[in-house]
Amino acid sequence: MLIKEISKTERPRERAEKLGIIALSDNELLAILLRTGAKNISAIEVGNEIIKTIDDISNLVDTTVTELTSVKEVGPAKALTIVAAIELGRRVNQAKTSVKVITPRSVYNHLKNDFVGIKQERFIAIFLDTKNNMISKKTIFIGSLNMSLVHPREVFKWAVKLSSASIILVHNHPSGDPTPSPQDVEVTKQIINAGEIVGIKVIEHIIIGSDSFISLNELGYFK
Which residues make Cβ contacts (< 8 Å) with residue 210, sequence separation at least 6? Predict the structure, then answer.
């Protein structure tokens, strides 16, 4: 269905004017940026195709022009418009507040709520710039932590993509006891070694328990 075939009051621009931009769905917001669709497909439907391609709207922050143009109906101009809008939003947000998560306590305070009610181990990488401001955080894996599942390439894929200067690793122990296991230590050392090869330093690994945390750096595993 084309936009012109949609009731005027239900079109994205008209809905935004009447209800405010916050009322629009993800694909409607993308439709406004896209402006037009393609042959026999509306901008809203193209927005849906973009979301399907990137799996989750949160991944849009790291999506490139090349990745967006892999969607059949999205050309370079439309892809660049979306990437520019995301970058502008990132800069506005960064100017508003720069989150520093350099100390173990600050990491714990920033991420502890991400693990509330989680029944499995969740492995997160925090990507920092040269001033130790958080660029982004990514869930690398959910499940039992071992090297066959948490591979350095998944961590450094994002580090390179985000132009990260350093990385902090964080995961939880659903048992509530943050004491590091031999697998925790093994994974940490292998990711540190991989970071030395590619020139991106891993500066910390925090294990979060039910109401406490442990720093593997403070325990001496980074020496």
Answer: 176
Task: Find residue 139's DSSP bridge partners.
Answer: 124
- Which residues lie below 8 Å from residue 71, measured CB to CB, with a gap of 6+? 46, 49, 50, 53
- Give the domains, in start order, of the chain with CATH numbers: 3-96 (1.10.150), 104-215 (3.40.140.10)
Instruction: Give 144's contacts (C-beta < 8 A, 6+ positions apart).
Output: 120, 121
Alpha helices in the chain (DSSP H): 12-19, 26-34, 43-54, 65-68, 76-96, 104-111, 152-161, 182-198
pTM of the shown model: 0.58
- Residue 44, helix vs strand vs coil: helix
Q: What are phi and psi of 109, to 5 degrees?
A: -65, -35
* Amino acid symbol at 16: A
All residues at 6 or more sequence positions from 67 whose CB lies less than 8 Å from its CB, including other chains? 53, 54
Under DSSP, the state recorded for 98 is: -
Per-residue pLDDT reduced to its tens digit, 26-70? 989 998 998 888 777 888 899 899 999 988 888 888 889 999 999
Helix (H, G, I), strand (E, B) or coil at 108: helix
Q: What is the pLDDT of residues 125-156, one digit of tens each?
A: 999 999 888 888 888 888 765 544 678 888 99
